[in-house]
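Chain A, query sequence.
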Amino acid sequence: MPVKVLVVDDSGFFRRRIAEILNADIGIEVVGTAEDGQKAVDAVKELDPDVVTMDIEMPVMDGITAVRKIMADHPRPILMFSSLTTEGAQATLDALEAGAVDFLPKRFSDMAGDEDSARALLRRRVRSLARSRARSSSAPGGDRPKTEAPVSERRQAADRKASETARETPKPPVARPPAPLSSLRAVLIGTSTGGPVALQEVLKHLPANFPLPVVLVQHMPASFTPAFAERLDAICPIRIKQAVDGDFLRPGTALLAPGGQQLTLERGSQTRVRVTESPAGTIYKPSVDAAFESAVDALRGQVLAVILTGMGADGREGVRALKGCGAQVWSQDAATSVVYGMPAAVAEAGLTDHVYPLPEIGPALVKGFC
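Chain A, predicted structure.
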């Protein structure tokens, strides 16, 4: 059966354009359109699409509110269309927090080098998200759970709980890391589709005094990574900043690779990052492979490499190089991945030491290193 898609946008031209692109794929069928968020909520209930494409700014009900309502009552993959501006980045991150699983630039010239490539990318993304829904629906527990309270409310509640616990409970002694992890010098995390939410889930567990530096490589446009780093830093105990050329790796600090560029690691008396322009023809900007492969020399492979949800196989060859130097490798499982592409590529190549559900990765890092 073809993938059923609902297209939501207040622009009739854009709705027709997206529908035309998707319907050109024999495996996809646009079953309906909607011009505002309220009609989108109603159409999801009536048409039961496999995937929804959603605009952000719309009359009657905006896209973020619509995402929240859909995910609360009839959860399914929602692909946001966003402008690549600072305001667009903030709104898109809000939509991902509300329950959307991925986004694409609304202007096709920002999506790919030519129109045909952009069209193919959109169709691939929709098919991949539909497969993720089929996988999650067949897993125990069914569709994605209802959305939680906003991050600010959860953070305040967590802070109150932590404060009360600290007053009432004596702090236990810090356990030594297991032998395989005790000699490691950094944690490297690579991700793509579904990564913004996955990274937040992992990093919220890491304390401010986490003993190792962390490097984050998330496929994301250049205009998005500054806002994403600021958001993560505001809600996670560990310090998080967008990397700049020359930054040193420091314990308790996570450096996010800037979008549109490449981050690599450079050996010296203290390991530092290099941020450079991407060579012509580079697919991923930033690339997980490039960052991970540079750690072979810079850190002698003494790292824990973690591959989270994402489309494609970026990270597999970098992990392979690190594994040859004795690095430890963890990957996210299929059931909790928005798209089981990158973790699957590593696992199917026999490179993964441990496979974890997403909620267990952060606690496992704390247990292993704190």
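The CA atoms of residues 56 and 63 lie 4 Å apart. The radius of gyration is 21 Å.
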